[in-house]
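Help wanted!
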Amino acid sequence: MTEKEDHRHEMDSQLPEARTEALEDLLVEKGLIDRARIDSLIERFEHDLGPMIGARLVAKAWLEPEFRDRLVADTDQVLQEENVSGAQIEHVEIKANEPGIHNVVVCTLCSCYPWALLGLPPAWYKSPEYRARVVREPRKVLEEMGLSLEAETEIRVWDSSSETRFLVLPERPAGSEHLEIEELAELVTRDSMIGVARAQTP
Amino acid sequence: MEDKTAVNQTLGVHDLGGTSGWGRVPYDPDEKPFHEEWERRVFGMMSQVLRHTAVRPGEFRRALERLAEKDYFAADGYYGRWRSGMEVLLEEYGHFEAGELDTHAGVAHGTGAGYRVSSAVEVDEDELPPDLPAPVPAHRTVRRELDRPSSFQIGDRVVAPGNRAGGHSRLPGYVWGVPGVVVKIHPAEVLPDSTAHNLGERPQHVICVAYKAEDLWGDDAEKGVVVNVDLYENYLRLEAEAQ
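Answered by r_m:
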């Protein structure tokens, strides 16, 4: 093999696909992991978990004031009653937006996120840009992401530094008064529960 | 006011809150969790690999925090960082020989993250709070029941002096030395600063501290912003006593 070919081979093998495949093969060869369990885990996280879980809770909170109060006051208890459990939501706090108060969630030290309520996080949530800037200039960051808040609105940033995870309860949009829970839940986007967007209007 | 510039080496590669020099957030409202098939595989492997390696709270995170900047901010993103973390731990726990994965991948030795990672620092036990016993619950949880209340009250003005010992910590650098107000007291949790280094649970009450943007960022601060951070009790002092 010439030096040039050797170099190209090295580059190819450094592609993430090749490196990941080599890692998985070696782990299987050593009996450390089971491929079928990898497949089923991916299946569960891609199809069974997602923002629809959090969205249903938000829609129910919009419809039932008593449920909303309990959800905000004792989230863990309500999640148990609603049979919502899973990874990364051992302890959850719900931060409710209201006129004049907007909440937004980040994890500056890592990328912690309530997986079993929202599914796996998008790449932008885990980006250094978001983690660095949203604590320092949240108004500007939200503006850049398409969410303009009034100057008088207080912004409360929640940095997920302990094992508690946060979910934002967005404000119910105008014109949604006649909607049923399923229709309401469709207005509740993932990003509105992170706090970088409003719920959609019907 | 101290300049908090991008990727402060004192703080560590991961301690990003408030660092400067970053551009726009790469935002896509319709982004899916995975972009490539290999990212799925990395995600899927993680929990099984952790069972053979980093089983204690904070230990995998500590491995990521020790990665070289090149591997932490990998061009192949977050799941590239995870893969590097797994490679490091698999070698450190003796499941892979040094260079074994390179050999398996058919590349020259020395390409993996394990060649660039910082070694695990020894944390001085005297820097940690005493390990007072608390019963371990029957189900898997980081929470512990302490037979003493928190030494702080809601409304207390507190300050976290900061930890320069270099181990794992949940105290972000941007709040070091900045006064804040206690807004909530959570039940105790095991202390990741200790568990990540296999030094016992040392459970601590978790204190939510609200910081005003003006106190964090000075004249540059945006108006009407509060940053809330959950901090383990041993990080904190009453402001009056810290001076």
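OP: Thanks! One thing I noticed: Chain B has a mean pLDDT of 91.
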